[in-house]
Design goal:
InterPro entries: Peptidase_A24A_bac, Prepilin_IV_endopep_pep, Prepilin_peptidase/N-MTase. About 65% of the residues lie in helices and about 0% in strands. The chain has helices at about 20-50, 95-110, 115-135, 140-165, 165-190, 195-210, 215-240, 250-265. The structure holds zinc ion (ZN).
C-alpha cells in the first residue's frame, strides 16, 4: 500500500511579468546609470584633454571656473556649458551621453557570460573618455590606458577561474601583448608616421578582449580598425578636410574595430 497518496497539485508558478516589462525596466535602469556615470566620463576628458606634459586641467578653459564632480551640472552634463561663463567645457553637447548609451546597448547585445561582459564594460568605461581625448588632442594618456588594460587582464582572469579555463586567458594575454608590440614596432620603425605608443597601450586591452574569443577575432578586429581608419582618411581627403600629411588619431578606430569584431564574433 502506498504510504503517500497522490501528490497534491503543485501551485501554479507565479505569473511572470510580460516579457517586454523586464526588458524595458532593465533598459531604463541602465539609462539612468549611464546618465549618472557620464559626468565622471566627461570629467576624465576635461582633465586629460591637455597637451603632453601639461598639468591636468582643473576647470573651464575660458574663465577658470572649477569643474568638479560635486557640482557636475551644467559643465559635466549633456549641455557641457561652464556654469559661470557658459563657454563649452569638454566634448560636444550630448556626444559623451550618446556614446555611453551606445556602449550600454552594445553590452546588452553582447549578453552573458557576466564575467567576460564585466571585462568589456570595464574597458569601455576607460576607452570612452580616451576616444574623446584622442580626438581633441591626439593623445592617449597613460593614466587611462594602463588601468583599462590591467582591469581587462584581471576580469578575464576571473572569467577563466569561474569556468572559461586557462586557455582563453593565456590567448588573451598573448594577443594583447602581441597587438601592443605590433603598434609599438610601427612607432620604432616609422616614427611619427607609425602608430603612437598610446595606441600600443590601448591595444593591450583591445587585443586581450579580441584574442579571448580566438585568433581570427583578433585579426578581424585589427583589420576592421585599419579599414575604418583608411575609409575615414580617404573621405576626409576627398572632402579636402585633411591632407596626406595629416595625422588622424587611431584610438577611436581601434575601439570601434574591437567592438565591431566582438559583436560579429558573438
Ligand atoms: Zn567658464
Amino acid at each position: 500500500m502506498a504510504l503517500t497518496g497522490p501528490r497534491p497539485p503543485q501551485p501554479a508558478p507565479e505569473s511572470s511579468p510580460a516579457p517586454g516589462d523586464g526588458g524595458r525596466s532593465g533598459v531604463a535602469r541602465a539609462a539612468v546609470a549611464v546618465l549618472l556615470l557620464t559626468p565622471l566620463l566627461r570629467l576624465a576628458v576635461v582633465r586629460h584633454a591637455v597637451p603632453a606634459g601639461s598639468i591636468l586641467r582643473a576647470g573651464c578653459a575660458a574663465c577658470g571656473a572649477v569643474v568638479e564632480l560635486r557640482h557636475p551640472w551644467p559643465a559635466l552634463g549633456p549641455t557641457a556649458r561652464c556654469r559661470r561663463c557658459r563657454a563649452r567645457t569638454g566634448p560636444r553637447p550630448g556626444s559623451v551621453e550618446l556614446a555611453a548609451v551606445g556602449a550600454v546597448a552594445l553590452l546588452v547585445l553582447l549578453g552573458p557570460p557576466v564575467a567576460e561582459l564585466a571585462a568589456v564594460a570595464w574597458w569601455l568605461g576607460w576607452v570612452l573618455p580616451l576616444c574623446f581625448i584622442d580626438l581633441a588632442v591626439h593623445r592617449l594618456p597613460d593614466r587611462l590606458t594602463w588601468p583599462a588594460a590591467a582591469g581587462v587582464g584581471l576580469l578575464l582572469g576571473l572569467a577563466a577561474l569561474t569556468g572559461a579555463g586557462a586557455g582563453p586567458w593565456l590567448r588573451a594575454v598573448l594577443g594583447g601583448a602581441g597587438l601592443a608590440l605590433f603598434f609599438a614596432a610601427t612607432t620604432l620603425l616609422l616614427g611619427a608616421r607609425g602608430f603612437g605608443l598610446g595606441d600600443a597601450k590601448l591595444a593591450l586591452g583591445a587585443g586581450a578582449l579580441l584574442a579571448w574569443h580566438g585568433w581570427p577575432v583578433l585579426v578581424a578586429g585589427l583589420l576592421l580598425a585599419l579599414g575604418l581608419s583608411a575609409l575615414v582618411s580617404l573621405g576626409l581627403l576627398a572632402a579636402r578636410r585633411a591632407r596626406w600629411s595629416s595625422h588622424l588619431p587611431f584610438g577611436p578606430f581601434l575601439v570601434l574595430g574591437t567592438l565591431a569584431a566582438l559583436l560579429l564574433s558573438g
